[in-house]
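ESCALATION

Customer reports they have been waiting on this structure for their group meeting. Please prioritize. Original submission:
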Amino acid sequence: MTLEELYSIIDTRKKDKPKGSYTASLMNAGEDRMIQKVGEEAVEVIIAAKNNDRRRTISESADLLYHLMVLLYEQNITLESIYDELEKRRK
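Update from on-call: job pushed to the front of the queue and completed.
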């Protein structure tokens, strides 16, 4: 799955609010909860990496990317704007 595909899924979940959707429930919980989850997942990535646990680092990184994408979506920040910023830094 690409980040673009994930962003599209998040968009669909926000609009359709399917029953039982974690994404929809996270968005209903509000921005503070989304921010909290990004922080929690970042710490879990750090701990897994410190422990040299490759499988866990991958898993926790996926969780972090997911929660970050939900937060970016909520704040109307597109992937293109992130890509543009990265491109500026490359020059």
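Sent to customer with the following note: The chain has a mean pLDDT of 96.
Escalation resolved.
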